[in-house]
Amino acid sequence: MQQDMIVVLDLGSEDNTLIARELRSLGVYSEIHPHDITAAQLKALPNVRGIILNGGPNRVVDGVSIDASKAVYESGLPLFAVDHKGQIPQNLERWPKDAGQLRDTLRAFTFEACKAQANWNMENFIADQIELVREQVGDKKVLLALSGGVDSSVVAALLLKAIGDQLTCVHVNHGLLRKGEAEQVVEVFQKQLGANLVYVDASERFLGKLAGVADPEQKRKIIGAEFIRVFEEEARKLDGIEFLAQGTIYPDIVESGTKTAKMVKSHHNVGGLPDDLQFELVEPLKMLFKDEVRACGVALGLPDNMVYRQPFPGPGLGVRCLGAITRERLEAVRESDAILREEFANAGLQGKVWQYFTVVPDFKSVGVRDNARSFEYPVILRAVNTIDAMTASIEPLDWALLEKITQRITHEVPGVNRVLYDLTPKPVGTIEWE
C-alpha cells in the first residue's frame, strides 16, 4: 500500500465516519477500527502514522466504560483523542468535541505530529488494489456478482484491469429489479463492454423464498443467502472458481454494525452472507465511501452515465415493497418507479438529484375512482441528495412536477389511489425505508 494511514479507533462515537472523511479530504488515508485492536492487528496495518481515539455516547458497553487497548498506548505512535475519557498518557493530545476548529486541529496532528504525506488519491488506490487482487487471486478465477449498479460496475472495471479473462460476471435477475434493468445490464456489459457475462433469471426462485416474509432484516438475509446459492451453482458449471467478488463499500460495513457502533441495518452483502460460504471474498472497494467509488470509476475510465447512475440496493425493490412482498405491490413499485424516473428526466433532474425512487407500503386507504369507493395502496416518493450516503437531505421538488407525477401514477398504476412525498432526512430516517 502506497498511502500513509491514520487509524480512527471507535470508542463509542457516533461520528467516526466524519473524522475518517475529514482525514481523507486532507489527502491522507484513514480507516475505522474497534477500540480493542490488538498489537498484531495494529502491526498488520500498513503505513500507520498516527491514531485517533474517538470517544462518544456509546463508550459504556455492558456497564463498563471502554478504553483503547494497551497495545495502542504502547505503540509509540502519535495519539490524538476526541471527546475521550480514558487514559491520557504524555504522548496523547486531548480535544473536546465542542472546542471547534476540529479540521484545523486534525491537519496539525496529521501533518505536524504524525509527519504523514498527503498521498491518498485514486491513482494510488487503484494501483494498490490491482496489486492486492493479483496477490490474493493468483492464477485462479473470480466470479463477480454484477448487479449493474455503480459499485459492482466499478469492481468489474477494476478486476478486468487486474486479472482480465480470469473474471466471469454473473448477473442474477431476482425478480426485484427496476423496469428494463436486466435488459440494460446485458446490453452494456455483454454487448458494449464485451465482458464474460452469465445471465440468470431466478425471479421465481427468489419470490418463492420471500413469500410471506415481512421482517426487513429477514428479507435481506434471505436475499443475500439465495444470491450466494445461485453463484455457487453457476461456479460449479465453470472450472477453477474459488473467489466471489462483491461491490461492498464502506457504508455497508459501517451500517451493519461494529462492537461499539450500533447497527442501522444489515446489508445483504455483509449481514446477509451465509455461514457456510464456499468462496473467498474479493472486495476491493470495501473501504471507500460512495463518492470515492464514483471517483474510482472515473479514474478507471468508465463512462459518466455508468459512474453517476442512481444507486440501487442489492435487495432491489424487495426493500421498497414494504412488509411481505406481493406480486401486486411489487408491480406497483416497479411501474411507479419507472414513471418517477421518466418525469425526473423530462424535468432535467436526472444526474442532479442523487437518488429518487418509490415505495409501496403494505396497507391500503379509501379513495374515490369512477364515482365509486376505492380501497387501494399509496405510493411514497423519495428524492434525496448526499455525498457519502451516511447523511442525506431532501430534494425540494417543484409543486407542478409533484402534481404531474401524482396524476400519472394514480391513473397509470393499477391498485394505487394516493401519492405521498417523504420529507425525512437521514438521520433520523435512512435513505431506504427498509
TrEMBL record:
Residue stretches making up the GMPS ATP-PPase domain: 120-309
GO cellular component, as recorded: cytosol
Keyword field: ATP-binding, Glutamine amidotransferase, GMP biosynthesis, Ligase, Nucleotide-binding, Purine biosynthesis
InterPro entries: Class_I_gatase-like, GATASE, GMP_synth_C, GMPS_ATP_PPase_dom, NAD/GMP_synthase, Rossmann-like_a/b/a_fold
Example of a GO MF term: ATP binding
Metabolic or biological pathway: Purine metabolism; GMP biosynthesis; GMP from XMP (L-Gln route): step 1/1
PROSITE patterns reported for this sequence: GMPS_ATP_PPASE
UniProt-listed Enzyme Commission number(s): 6.3.5.2
A Pfam family assignment: GATase
Binding of ATP, residues: S147, G148, G149, V150, D151, S152, S153
PANTHER family in alphabetical order: GMP SYNTHASE [GLUTAMINE-HYDROLYZING] (PTHR11922:SF2), GMP SYNTHASE-RELATED (PTHR11922)
General function of this protein: Catalyzes the synthesis of GMP from XMP.
Protein name stated in the entry: GMP synthase (glutamine-hydrolyzing)
Lineage of origin: Bacteria, Bacillati, Bacillota, Clostridia, Christensenellales
